[in-house]
Amino acid sequence: MDLFPAENQQRLLVAHGLDSWFGAQWVSIEDGREAAQRLHFPAETIETCDFQTAMRSYDPVGSAQRVWITSHAPGWSHVLLLSGGQSSSAEELSRHGQRVFELSYVGEIEELDEPIYTHDGEYRSIFDEAEYEAYRTNSSNDNTMPVSDLEQFLIIIGRITGRFLDQDWVSSQGLLCVIP
User: What superkingdom does the record give (predicted)?
Assistant: First the structure.
């Protein structure tokens, strides 16, 4: 795996309409349906769709819980929050030895929370875990250009999970899950 993504992670989000609000989880569960089940989405509310179809449900202020779950990398799923993202589900997703990395960003006010790392139901700081220290070094591939905190966090999580966000991700099929 490359040390840096082929394209700027934050620009990719902006180009695909995720600039005002971005909430996501990287879950060490390969099967997206298992992740949906752990999130308590009823099977009858889950449908397979592409990113563009899922984004029609994107509503940062909406109350209905909606996510789009995709395969991310071997052993990992990606959960993109589309609406109703007021409470974290990382504790439930991380049970039975799983790991979850969670990011939340509000672009309109440039508010970014430190990534949440949850392992087996226990919240931790990614910055306190020695096993992830190597992934945090050198997060800018151009020392003359400052990198935003969001970009740095996305690079760190991409390194840990083995894949950065890319055009293939926004071109992929995933599971649109809804709790009305």
Answer: Bacteria
